[in-house]
Design brief:
heterodimer; A: mainly beta; six-stranded mixed beta sheet; 11 strands; 0% helix; B: mainly beta; seven-stranded mixed beta sheet; four-stranded antiparallel beta sheet
């Protein structure tokens, strides 16, 4: 049972345009969400996060939106650059005690930004 | 600052052999996590430590898997005996505090023949 789902395995956009990556979750205990970016043969690197008390968090070209009622979050990259081409993972955590430190990951979306 | 360091980067061995994966977390980080990435299951948490103590090993698939953290700067994940279905990329991550973003190593690609 996948608690964090990224339904688009891949996404292709033109340089300069907006990239929108989507993520859905099922566990209502999740209260903190993160996006990680991964290049081939490297480990995931933290990109941006959002707490469930917010509905938007922005960091430069990256913005994450959270819709708690729909259990949906999205990552917007504007403008997209070829260097953004990577696999993007959505992750979530929440719950009591030690389970609050455990991240549950989606399977990732491969973003390709074409020059 | 040095990141999380994992070794070896690649490991190829025959089934039945013992495999030991190593991880050096970022200095000062008190949480250490071991993950496994496969095509079928994605990235899943196996076990995590706080201050060298295992806190949650509910993700460890079988008794063939064991993990230790003898000190703050070193952890191992051992598989004995290894099986072909253990083939995956294994990542180690660390964080300063359990709620801070985790920093990942570059992983060990394990192939069991």
């Amino acid at each position: 049972d996948q608690q964090v789902k990224q339904n688009s395995p891949s996404l292709s956009v033109q340089e300069g345009r907006i990239s929108i990556l989507n993520c859905d979750y099922t566990n209502s205990m999740f209260d903190y969400f993160l996006w990680y970016k991964k290049y081939p043969a490297e480990g995931p690197t933290f990109l941006i996060s959002i707490s469930s008390i917010k509905d938007k968090n922005e960091d430069g070209r990256f913005t994450v939106f959270l819709n708690k009622s729909a259990k949906h979050l999205s990552l917007h990259i504007v403008p997209s650059q070829p260097g953004d081409s990577a696999v993007y993972f959505c992750a979530a955590r929440g719950g009591s005690g030690g389970s609050n430190y455990k991240l549950t990951f989606g399977k990732g979306t491969l973003l390709t930004v074409n020059p | 600052d040095a990141g999380v360091i994992q070794s070896p980067r690649h490991e190829v061995t025959e089934m039945g052999q013992e495999v030991t994966l190593r991880c050096k977390p970022i200095s000062g980080h008190d949480y250490l996590f071991w993950y496994r990435q496969t095509m079928m299951r994605g990235l899943e948490l196996l076990i995590y430590f706080n201050n060298n103590v295992p806190i949650d090993d509910s993700g460890m698939p079988e008794d063939r898997f064991s993990a230790k953290m003898p000190n703050a700067s070193f952890s191992t994940l051992k598989i004995q005996p290894s099986e072909p279905r253990d083939s995956a990329v294994y990542f180690c991550a660390s964080s300063r505090g359990g709620l801070q973003p985790q920093h990942f190593g570059d992983g060990t690609r394990l192939s069991i023949l």
